[in-house]
Amino acid sequence: MSSNWRSSNPTRRTVRRRTAAAAALAALTLGVSACSGGGDEEPAGDATGDTGGTSTAEDVSIGLITKTETNPFFVTMREVASEYAEEQGVELTALAGEFDGDNEGQVQAMENLIAQGVDGIMVTPNNSTGVLGAIEQARAQGIVVIALDTATDPEDAVDATFATDNLEAGRLQGAYVRAVLGDTEPRLIMLDGTAGGTVDTFRHDGFLDGFGIEEGDPAIVGMENTQGDQNTAQTAMENLLQRNPDVNAVYTINEPAARGAYAAIEAAGLTDGVTIGSIDGGCQGVQDVADGRYAATVMQFPAEMVRQGMDAIIQAAEGGEAPSGFVDTGSIVITDEPVDGIESQDTAWGLENCWG
Fold first, then answer.
1. Domain extent listing, the chain
2. Is residue 293 a contact partner of residue 269, using CB atoms and an 8 Å limit?
3. Could you say which of 3.90.550.10, 3.30.1050.10, 3.20.20.140, 3.40.50.2300 is the CATH number of the domain covering 166-299+333-353?
4. Burial bucket for residue 340 (CB in 10 Å: 0-12, 13-18, 19+)
5. Does the pLDDT of residue 114 top 60, yes or no?
6. What's the CA gap between 22 and 17, in Å, rounded?
7. 346 burial level (CB within 10 Å; 0-12, 13-18, 19+)
8. Biggest distance spanned by C-alpha atoms of the chain
9. Is 255 helix (H, G, I), strand (E, B) or coil?
């Protein structure tokens, strides 16, 4: 979308904000006018929207749609978005699907935000194509749409993407786990996320590339989908261990899955012989690495995704250039057992920067 997306109808935002007031109240708008974290700061504004002339973003409204409300990664996104909205003096509405893979729920959430007349929508798509129709509808209304965490297909279906390069994050996990094994013949179990999920596919494929094998390699002795859920992953790992007790490496789609895998491996008395890798970089995940539950995690930076996405929407809503393209918000291996050739940080650094 061009940078003058708003110039053809300069009154559009004013009109739609007036007509959408009732819908806004009914769509789970987060309260961002509560007490600020800084005691000396002026409040973002009163109920009439008056900010005393100190805020240039006072009329900007932003929607955030995450995959779920329960995954710690998306909980962090919502918390950061709420805090940053208050700091910037903008209105935030946060919605989510009911479960990982709930494309229909995300479409409904986007339609609600379109009805509200928000200036911009940030969405973590369940897959690259699941919400394309709703995205097209939003952009046709002049709403800036930004993908967070997961790119769309085609990538230019949205104005811009702020995300981890999940293929690279998976590659880092795979390269690290393979390096730890050294000359030992690998016997790998893969605990994936949701079948067909974009992030899931990128991480899976990246891991195989970093590990140095291809799909169907006999080194893969077991594979299950876990929806990234700890309990589901634990059950899957328990079942897979019954058939493959000699496993020595485990790929996990995220840290909840890694915790489930560890619980099953610990119960089987196999922790000394199995290297678990993961991706997320949440504070609990970094602590798990510090405690020896798994060997490494690849840290992402969801807070940066949110802040940069909100900055881009605010800039566009105020008449600046609209965002475009893919912005890699970074990833790095966190481990207390570094290996040659793989850049990493230790868990002390990780705990200071987790999901920053």
1. 12-163+302-323, 166-299+333-353
2. no
3. 3.40.50.2300
4. exposed
5. yes
6. 10
7. middle
8. 67
9. helix
Beta strands in 149-229 (DSSP E): 160-163, 188-192, 220-225
- The span from the CA of 113 to the CA of 177, in Å, is 42
pTM: 0.75
Return the DSSP state at 151: -
Of all residues in the chain, what percent carry a pLDDT higher than 70? 84
d(CA 338, CA 351): 16
Of the candidates 199, 156, 133, the residue with the CA atom closest to the CA atom of residue 323: 156
The pLDDT-based confidence of 50 (bands split at 50, 70, 90) is very low
Between 92 and 9, the more confident residue is 92
Residues in CB range of 234: below 8 A, 6 or more apart: 259, 260, 261, 263, 264
Amino acid at 320: G
For residue 8 the two structure tokens come to 């053809």
Output the six-digit token pair for 211.
Answer: 């590990």
Question: Amino acid letter at 174?
Answer: G
Q: Which two tokens stand for residue 241?
A: 């261990």
For the chain, the straight-line distance linking the first and the last C-alpha, in angstroms and rounded, comes to 29
- Distance CA(220)–CA(240), nearest Å, equals 12
CATH 1.10.3720.10 fits 12-163+302-323, yes or no: no
Comparison of pLDDT for 102 and 310, the residue scoring more: 310
Task: Specify the DSSP element, H or E, that contains 123.
Answer: strand 120-123
Nearest residue to 102 (alpha-carbon basis) of 64, 123, 130: 130
Q: What angle do CA 165, 305, 51 make, to 5 degrees?
A: 165
**Shortest CA distance to 253 belongs to which of 327, 165, 167, 192?**
192
